[in-house]
Amino acid sequence: MNQEEFKLPLGQKASLVSLVCEKFESHSTVLETNNSLRELRELLKTLGLIDGEEYVQNRKQLDPATMLGEGKLREIADAAREEGSTVLVFDFELTASQIRNIKEITKMEVVDRNTVILEIFAHHARTKEAKIQIEISRLQYLLPRLTAMWGHFSKQRSAGAALGGEGEQQLELDRRMVRERIEFYKRQLEEVQKSREQQRKKRQNQAVTAALVGYTNAGKSSLMNRLCKVNVLEENKLFATLDSTFRTLNPDSKPPMIMIDTVGFISNLPNTLIQGFKTTLESALEADLLVIVCDISDPNYQKHLRVTQEVLKELKIEEKQQIIVFNKKDLLNDPVRARIIMRNYPNSFLVSSYDEEDMKNLREYIINFFLSKQDHYDLFVPYEAGEAHSRIRGNANIINSVSHEQGIFYRIRIPDFIFQQLGLNNFILAPSEAKDWENPTSI
Fold this sequence. Notes:
13 strands
């Protein structure tokens, strides 16, 4: 089995194929289909395929064998070849038999939207975990489509009919190899995830986190760069970021405040990818605050928000504290939309990642959010308890400290889960005692 035969022919021209059918989800109206095709063009741009013309058929019923009508498919193939296309990209998922039937009719390479997304993830994954997850997803998607994906199988079956089923035996061998490879990658993934879980627990004990989540290309990486003053990859492409990235938002606070940039969401994501990338999306599980980022300049911003909330619900984290950041206000040509959004979402932020004042205000809000969640403690620590002084200065935000002949009074702000790790409970003052120690002249 040569997996290279499954890869898309990058750099070639591809024609886009879709339909409008009121019984077909996400393609029930012309507007829905046009929006989906626009997104598909962006996916092809990310992948490196040259996008050609769009071909759309209006249908009352879907054809179970080919989705579109056979005559329409031949017409599309002729027009696509005329414009120099070698690939037909269908803007929805195709079954193995549908791919095979369409290939036979059009005599062209045929791929579906899910294949494009899988290829993008395969090209852009950087961490070991993401690469393994993608391979599992690709192989799971490939398994039921082996006969349709590779032309040599049909030839083997034809030959096999005369040779006692040799082609079918080869096909079954390839299926077995795919299953074995899936199991191999799953075992590898378990090992990687154990290591990741240890890192996650370590972060939970040492930091507080905010996760940037939202639809792909909403500008999460741009916000990450401005808020954390770093240089995470930011491109005007769908799925420019596939691996969760961790950066320090405010190194001066104790504990450090960490910002997480997560993989973007998209509608109609392949089921294999939802499962395969669940652990990557689960980086949001450890977050204390969800920062939902939405591109306000996109006409489909409401749908993008809905998809984001659906994914958060699937991850069972929709109840986490969250704020909505409407990004790219500099690209918004409709001031009325901005007013409507701010009226409908009164506690949200309307920002441009290139506006320094916007970034300053958003950063301060997130920092103050974390600080407001910290507990206050009044402590009196004798001088001889040197290690206790070190733990306070190294792990707590000191609001006030007053030296006395017997020791030092501290008023600190710190998350309770970290305070409990420091072993300082014996130094806690009662409220009446704290008043005296805070003002040594009264003692």
